[in-house]
Design brief:
With 327 residues, the chain is of the alpha+beta class. Among the domains are: 64 residues; 103 residues, no CATH class. Helix content is 49%, strand content 16%. The chain contains nine helices and nine strands. The strands form two sheets. The protein has a five-stranded antiparallel sheet with strand order 1-2-3-4-5. The protein has a four-stranded mixed sheet with strand order 8-7-6-9, covered by helices on one side. β3 and β4 form a beta hairpin. α3 runs antiparallel to α4 and α7 runs antiparallel to α8.
C-alpha cells in the first residue's frame, strides 16, 4: 500500500487489465456482443438452408420439363450455381451459444496473457523499486567531470551514437565470477516475450481445442496471432544480440564484434538527451560510451532508467578505473 501511495501511477496497468477483462467477460456472456453475433450468424445460416431447399424443389420441377426453353436451361444453370454457393455456408461454425469457439477462445487467451504479463511487470517493479532508487549523499551520486582540454576528448565525437531512445531500463548489469556482463534487461525481455506469448498461446489453444474446425493446418500460424509471434522473435533477435562482458581476470572487454584490453579504455562518456513527445511525454535518455585511447567510441548503455544508469555507470568506472566525462 505504501508503494501505491508514493506512486499512484502503478495502479494504471492494473485498472487497464481489469477493464479489459470486464469488457471481454461482458462480451462472451449470454446477450453479449459475441453471443448476439453468433445468434445472427445462425439465423443467416437457417435462412440460407430454407432458400437452398426452395431452389432444390424448383430445380427438380424444371428438370422434369420435356421440352425446356432456352430460358429454362439458363434458369437451371443459375439455380445450380446458387445452390452450390449456399452449400458452402450451410454448415454452422458455431453449434450453440455456450460452445467453445474461436471467437471466444482467442480473445480470452489474449486478454489472460496480457493480464499475466502486466502482473509480472508490476511484481518486478515493486520488488526492485528500492534497489535502484536514488540515494541521498554526495558519494552515492554519479561522479562526472568535464574533460576540459583533454587531447583525447578533443578528437572524440560528442554526438549520440546509439540508435533510438527509451524511458525505461533497456540494459542490466550483472555480476559474474569473471567480472561484469551487460545484457538485455528484464523489462526488455518481458516486452518481447509479451508479443510471443500473446500470439503463441491462442495458436496452441486453437490447435488443442479447435483442431476439427481448422481448414488448413497452417491457418493459426498464418493468422494475426502468428504475426505477434514473428514480431516478438524479431524483437528478441534485436535486443538480445548485444552482449558485452568485462572480464576482470583477463582484463579484457568482449563485445559481439571485437575484444580489447582494459588498457585501451581512456574514459567513459555520458550523453544525455531529451526524447519523446510534448509536455509529459518528454523523458530523459542516457547514453554511456567507452572512449578508447584513439578517440573511438563503443556504445554500452542507452536507456532512460536514471537510477539504474548511474549505478551501472559507477560500477563500470570503478572496474575500468577511468573517469566519466560529461559536457
Amino acid at each position: 500500500m505504501d508503494v501505491m501511495k508514493k506512486n499512484p501511477l502503478i495502479l494504471l496497468p492494473i485498472i487497464g487489465v481489469l477493464i479489459a477483462i470486464f469488457c471481454l467477460v461482458k462480451a462472451i456472456l449470454p446477450d453479449g456482443q459475441i453471443d448476439k453475433g453468433q445468434i445472427a450468424l445462425q439465423k443467416m445460416q437457417a435462412e440460407n438452408q430454407r432458400s437452398r431447399l426452395k431452389m432444390q424443389t424448383e430445380l427438380v420441377q424444371l428438370k422434369e420439363l420435356k421440352n425446356p426453353t432456352d430460358h429454362n436451361i439458363w434458369h437451371i444453370s443459375h439455380i445450380e450455381k446458387s445452390i452450390a454457393h449456399l452449400s458452402r455456408y450451410d454448415t454452422p461454425r458455431f453449434q450453440t451459444s455456450t460452445s467453445l469457439t474461436r471467437h471466444r477462445l482467442i480473445p480470452m487467451s489474449i486478454v489472460a496473457t496480457i493480464a499475466i504479463v502486466a502482473f509480472i511487470y508490476i511484481w518486478h517493479y515493486v520488488r526492485n523499486r528500492s534497489k535502484f532508487a536514488p540515494r541521498p549523499g554526495l558519494n552515492n551520486g554519479a561522479v562526472r567531470i568535464h574533460p576540459n582540454s583533454d587531447p583525447v576528448a578533443a578528437k572524440t565525437h560528442w554526438q549520440s551514437m546509439a540508435a533510438g531512445a527509451s524511458n525505461f531500463k533497456m540494459q542490466q548489469l550483472e555480476k559474474s565470477n569473471a567480472g561484469l556482463i551487460i545484457r538485455a534487461s528484464f523489462e526488455v525481455k518481458l516486452f518481447y516475450w509479451a508479443f510471443i506469448f500473446t500470439g503463441l498461446v491462442p495458436i496452441v489453444l486453437e490447435y488443442f481445442f479447435l483442431w476439427n474446425d481448422i481448414d488448413f493446418i497452417l491457418d493459426p500460424l498464418l493468422s494475426t496471432c502468428g504475426i505477434f509471434v514473428l514480431v516478438g522473435m524479431l524483437l528478441s533477435w534485436m535486443f538480445t544480440g548485444k552482449r558485452i562482458e568485462f572480464n576482470k581476470v583477463s582484463k579484457t572487454i568482449y563485445t559481439s564484434e571485437r575484444k580489447f584490453p582494459f588498457s585501451e579504455v581512456y574514459a567513459l562518456q555520458v550523453i544525455t538527451s531529451l526524447a519523446g513527445g510534448h509536455g509529459h511525454g518528454i523523458y530523459r535518455n542516457n547514453e554511456l560510451n567507452i572512449v578508447l585511447n584513439d578517440g573511438q567510441r563503443i556504445n554500452v548503455l542507452n536507456h532512460g532508467g536514471v537510477a539504474a544508469f548511474e549505478y551501472q555507470e559507477l560500477q563500470l568506472s570503478k572496474l575500468l578505473n577511468v573517469p566519466v566525462w560529461q559536457v
